[in-house]
Amino acid sequence: MIDFKGMHFPKDVILFAVFFYLRYPVSYRDLEEIMEERGVDVDHGTLNRWVVKFAPLMAVQAQSRKKPTAVSWRMDETYIKVKGKWTYYYRAVDNTGKTLDFMLSERRNKAAARRFFKRAIGTNGVPDRVVIDKSGANLAGLQSVNVILKFTGSGNTIKILQVKYLNNIIEQDHRFVKRITGPMLGFKAFHSTEATLAGIETAHMIRKGQLHANGLTAFQQFAALAA
């Protein structure tokens, strides 16, 4: 259960604002006006603090409650600007387009790729195969994970495929994230960027039907993660 004690607004109001920001292409000032239209007087700075505080907590719950994913993965990275500089956003989906994991990194190298793959495996288990682009860093990172698996696991390793057209699924999936981040007018800090992206991915997972809906609307599914 996510703790809302000490907050000066009702839990449902906070969750609605956070979900709306993560699901739709709006700025904080846009959302401030939307909330005011609904009779809630809250400034954009407070809305930002809600997103940074609660979005990553909701993401953790979504990862633990999502439906099983396939063992054939697609991995790629895209670019997110933070404080005027480009950072690297690693993402992976399975071969049906379901979200596996994501990680923001200041660098694009073997160490970052290895860290991402270890994180994704920790969340989703070891895949049979991973499709990547022609990046040497991603290949080296995955090969180093295979070395670890070979000597510490069951002996099974991951089949690595570098076939660009097979990665169309994840390249298309990047577009949802970019559509939401576009109107946000840039990110000012690495930590808040990580938090916001985690929330966007959670809303995207709900949109893709990765949680058990049980007849609930998208917002109701999001709110249920806080229970």
Automatic annotation (TrEMBL):
GO MF terms, alphabetically ordered: DNA binding
Cited Pfam families: DDE_Tnp_IS240
Keyword terms: DNA recombination, DNA-binding, Transposition
InterPro entries attached to this UniProt entry: DDE_dom, Integrase_cat-core, IS_Transposase, RNaseH-like_sf, RNaseH_sf, Transpos_IS6
Record function comment: Involved in the transposition of the insertion sequence.
NCBIfam families: transpos_IS6
Keyword Membrane included in the entry's annotation: no
Residues annotated as domain Integrase catalytic: 64-226
GO term, biological process aspect, one: transposition
Keyword DNA-binding found: yes
Name this polypeptide is given: IS6 family transposase
Record PROSITE patterns: INTEGRASE
Domain of life according to the entry: Bacteria
